[in-house]
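The instructor's notes for this session suggest beginning with a concrete chain rather than abstract definitions. Hand out the sequence below and ask the class to guess, before any prediction is shown, which regions might be ordered.
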Amino acid sequence: MKPLLASSAQAQLAYDGQRLHQILESPVFDQSTPEDTSWKPAFCEAIILLDGLLNHAEQMGHRIDFTDEVGVHGKVQDITSLVSWFRRCMPASAAEAPDRHLSSRLNCYADAGSGYFANGYFFTCNHTGELAFFLDDQRIYLHRHIHRSLQEAESA
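After discussion, reveal the predicted structure:
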């Protein structure tokens, strides 16, 4: 019975990886206006899927642990714990329709810049052409963090 479970788990991981690629390659993160919030459900689903893939990589003995531009001031220690923190802060239904409470805490900013969001949190995005997502005061980059984590998990 164990090989069947392992096979089922492997199939689920493959599906999750394919779905994550599908989300990341879709135009949903092409921001046209700051008021456009259509990215939020896709972002939440991507974090949920990535968290599962990173947890699997860790169980296989290969924790994805880079800290490049990961805000490691108390809440997180590396990219795996940052993704896990984002996942824990989202309700289970967030991938379909983030609730108002989460929506007011979840922001994104494209390109280099800094300032304050409407919810009062200060933000900084250090890279032109990058998309930074913020949940409260924690930041995760689309390319430097999410894409890189996925690549490292897949090569583990």
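Then share the key points. Strands lie at 106-110, 113-116, 122-125, 131-135, 138-141. The CA atoms of residues 111 and 129 lie 5 Å apart.
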